[in-house]
Amino acid sequence: MIFPIFFTFVLLLSSSHASVQDFCVADYKAPDGPAGYSCKKPAKVTVNDFVYSGLGIAGNTTNIIKAAVIPAFAAQFPGVNGLGISLARLDLAPGGVIPFHTHPGASELLLVVEGTIIAGFVASDNTPYLKTLKKGDIMVFPQGLLHFQVNGGGTPALAFPSFSSPSPGLQILDFALFKNDLATELIAQTTFLDAAQIKKLKGVLGGTN
Amino acid sequence: MIFPIFFTFVLLLSSSHASVQDFCVADYKAPDGPAGYSCKKPAKVTVNDFVYSGLGIAGNTTNIIKAAVIPAFAAQFPGVNGLGISLARLDLAPGGVIPFHTHPGASELLLVVEGTIIAGFVASDNTPYLKTLKKGDIMVFPQGLLHFQVNGGGTPALAFPSFSSPSPGLQILDFALFKNDLATELIAQTTFLDAAQIKKLKGVLGGTN
Amino acid sequence: MIFPIFFTFVLLLSSSHASVQDFCVADYKAPDGPAGYSCKKPAKVTVNDFVYSGLGIAGNTTNIIKAAVIPAFAAQFPGVNGLGISLARLDLAPGGVIPFHTHPGASELLLVVEGTIIAGFVASDNTPYLKTLKKGDIMVFPQGLLHFQVNGGGTPALAFPSFSSPSPGLQILDFALFKNDLATELIAQTTFLDAAQIKKLKGVLGGTN
Amino acid sequence: MIFPIFFTFVLLLSSSHASVQDFCVADYKAPDGPAGYSCKKPAKVTVNDFVYSGLGIAGNTTNIIKAAVIPAFAAQFPGVNGLGISLARLDLAPGGVIPFHTHPGASELLLVVEGTIIAGFVASDNTPYLKTLKKGDIMVFPQGLLHFQVNGGGTPALAFPSFSSPSPGLQILDFALFKNDLATELIAQTTFLDAAQIKKLKGVLGGTN
Amino acid sequence: MIFPIFFTFVLLLSSSHASVQDFCVADYKAPDGPAGYSCKKPAKVTVNDFVYSGLGIAGNTTNIIKAAVIPAFAAQFPGVNGLGISLARLDLAPGGVIPFHTHPGASELLLVVEGTIIAGFVASDNTPYLKTLKKGDIMVFPQGLLHFQVNGGGTPALAFPSFSSPSPGLQILDFALFKNDLATELIAQTTFLDAAQIKKLKGVLGGTN
Amino acid sequence: MIFPIFFTFVLLLSSSHASVQDFCVADYKAPDGPAGYSCKKPAKVTVNDFVYSGLGIAGNTTNIIKAAVIPAFAAQFPGVNGLGISLARLDLAPGGVIPFHTHPGASELLLVVEGTIIAGFVASDNTPYLKTLKKGDIMVFPQGLLHFQVNGGGTPALAFPSFSSPSPGLQILDFALFKNDLATELIAQTTFLDAAQIKKLKGVLGGTN
């Protein structure tokens, strides 16, 4: 009344060097590579590797942009490593804004759960695609294109962007330009912005030179 | 004070046979291929191709499983075609259940927005990974593995699964086995279920033979 | 009469940190990642890494399903690591059956070498695709879909399934449901099977709860 | 006693522009693209698209190389289109040989079913990997590398190579060099072969110039 | 003295619905999809599809940025369709500059052929990577990150960027922000730039609102 | 006047186990895998990892083929690891030739910078595609196909091939056949070349047997 064949079979699959390969939970202590983090040993994997609870509490929006983003990427959430997907939480207080940014490694699909959000992206041909999103609406931002989100109402907005990669990356335009030591003159030359404008934003964001 | 070079450049990129290639909004009337639907002509694309509003209203859960799923896959939401991501809405009334199923073409990342959900998947080595998820929790189900969701509380639950493909597919176990004309004897032989059990579920689900 | 340029050239390619990169024979002692196992040092690779002889002898089919499967996946056969392909051997005694299962990470192409096999898969729309295969016939099972194989004659059948991944995975439906400690009540709720049926199969397969 | 939710759900998935996306059976009359052939309309797909019977009969080996190859690639076998796998049949009479060739688009996994085959490939560092394969042995040839198969015994040999692509391609060295109108002088210059040798093989294979 | 087997074999491969599949030269008149353009019929392909001569002449740099870019992407150069690579020509007169931009779909590898170029990119953590490149130097810009090139000497500079995609895309920061009808107020809100600065650049680039 | 949210956010992304994931500069001392080398720790990455200066000086062409190739693949140029692109330098003195070869892992896009080059590839159907390339011309060689380059004029030629992979591989036909210990008889059997021809080239290239 037993299945000897399967015992044999499973034995082979669970031999010393086997990896289950259904998933590859990130082992942050081993080397990472172009495809992601190394895999945790199967015996050490638990259900908690596949669950992330850090998105349940609103981020602190008492700041100048009145917004907060909490990522659940492979670097924070080991279970998504190698699985082609990740998520984040986005809180926008009234007047809140997530300034222009890109995700170099993923497309984004934004889900509005509370409030109203004005979202937009700009295509390579410079056409802007702009929409006011209500609760339950979703909008997709194709990989690598500049986009933004702004609270479009008088109440807090909550949204959850999902991404087509466990490590989508995030390049915030203002930070890339002004929150480092790039020379003002070089920035002026490569953005056509006035030096005074550049220096002003460097001051706000903590950049130098 | 103008940029003639860019005019030249953009001219080249917008020549008659150019495709913007930032995105490939689905053209449902042209042939589809292994990578997805054909692309709509750029001139016909509008922001509404990138926005989907069908997930804003709860699905009807007054049915035997007390649950409803509304997909926003490439077949419904043309903007995600080719972008490696899609989304769905999941409503679970008290006692509601999404029975065992797989997505042959994608990993799933479930976000609980209201209520409590008991979710689980089974790995290839038959280990079950089971967790009670609260509002704000997320759980990942690796590609192709059997998983389920059950309302874990006395109130309605709302969740949004995102997927690592615009066309994740969905194979519901009971439907695959019982909602068609596969012979009862063959099902019995390949599942070890009793013929009476099979016939009973065929009756419920509308299968024959 | 020599080719100094090539000597220089080859020198560069064989410098201390070079990897041949034609292949990546699995090193089972180093970490694995989402793309597979780490590569063995080129100097340690031999032809035997690319050859596997474990499929030459029939598996033992004197068991309840009268069938045997022997895998040559990356976990057993180091040479296929990273190369997008693997193979297995399938023996079916008269009356033998490989019950419903999926490969979460690969499509399968079954080659019948001896005897007759009734094979089938079920698509996402619940349509079954069923065929009696004779010696020399091949049948493809698309990635992630439920499928089975049954000996269709009175003589032993031999087949070789090949897979579109070095680690296709294997989830056997009955094992996933019944060969673990998932609560009978939860299984009943998520499969619509009767509790008695579940307990019966748990008993046969060694499951608990 | 019915499942209204699923009816609703399936209705959505089977709407007019839906594609099942479990598979993409080749439609040879529509355009093909970099990812393969266009998909046949789901309603026209039958089980016969997933089954190929052309490999059941031995190829005719009464020719100069005493060998025959019959492909079941996407161009012959519509069901493998887009699924990352394909197969072929290889017959080698005593003394038969498949001369040096490459598959530009796939790795190959050779399964010996009858007889003995001497097989080999050469790596980028010019190391040859050579082995005499017996019935049941498998050997992998990494993508794009030169390899060959020779009957290693006094009896007919039968083998089935599987490939990691539905369209692996096949470039036979002698044919690429000699079975076309490339100028003898140019071939001599780019292969270091003697003009007489080139002209001799052009004569045998039907090349000109 | 002939090879009948090969004749048979080639016959199969060249049957009416066969595609050579070594390449997929773009057919600009057929539909395109997520993986690229449809393939030209093999019989219509000539060597000229694989050769592009448009990069041999310097672009016109008598413009405000003293620079010119000429692309050889899949939209201009049909032979690269589906092959994962493309190229462009970059001319920088003394004082010339290619302002900050991204390629949403590819990494770039810049080769300096004449003159001196100051090039840089900014990583997601806002670290700038900056280098003065001389003739023969190459520099890689990872996919999707903001980067720029500036003539670093008193003589014309010539460079050839190659890309890891046949359709890398190009989003020029100033154009995305200022060369369209995005409202000045919205741009101010999402970039922190002063309204006056925005209006000034809109004026230069032909934007409105 | 500060952005506390971003500080929080960046803090998360730069936690101890974070990897920037914009790039994966090769760490030659850690294990490599099918997707490439392990990533250098972000803190150790400098701009010099992204710049390679080894292609600025002509290779030594005073050899029998009057040609030189200098690669900047991932094994030499750590910055391209995982980025899907690489480059090389090709010098051809008058009369110089790069004999028939393949790149098993990449398509090649050749840019002629000085002089004239006769280049060609042969497709799977044995059709040669041949062209005389002038300064500024580019030609693409699809992945895995046999191709060659010959100086087509009386002056030195300089070209830069770029590749669609950081590790394209390189298999030189003559070397694969004659620069190792493959038995002359076996080569004769699998190439149809005369034994005398084989022995002659083995002698030139340093092969044995």
Spell out the blueprint of helices and strands.
Six copies of one chain form a homohexamer.
Chain A: H1 4-13, E1 26-33, E2 36-39, E3 51-52, E4 67-72, E5 86-92, E6 97-102, E7 108-114, E8 117-122, E9 128-133, E10 138-141, E11 147-151, E12 157-163, E13 171-172, H2 173-178, H3 184-191, H4 195-205
Antiparallel strand pairs in A: 1-2, 4-5, 5-12, 6-11, 6-13, 7-10, 7-12, 8-9, 8-11
Quick synopsis:
The structure is a homohexamer of 209-residue chains. By secondary structure, chain A is of the alpha+beta class. In chain A, 17% of the residues lie in helices and 33% in strands.
Q: How does this structure look, described?
A:
The structure is a homohexamer of 209-residue chains. With 209 residues, chain A is of the alpha+beta class. In chain A, 17% of the residues lie in helices and 33% in strands. Chain A has 4 helices and 13 strands. Chain A has helices spanning 4-13, 173-178, 184-191, 195-205, and strands at residues 26-33, 36-39, 51-52, 67-72, 86-92, 97-102, 108-114, 117-122, 128-133, 138-141, 147-151, 157-163, 171-172. The first copy, chain A, is globular and about 60 Å long. Residues 1-19 of chain A have low confidence and may be disordered. Chains in contact: A-B, A-C, A-E, A-F, B-C, B-D, B-E, C-D, C-F, D-E, D-F, E-F.
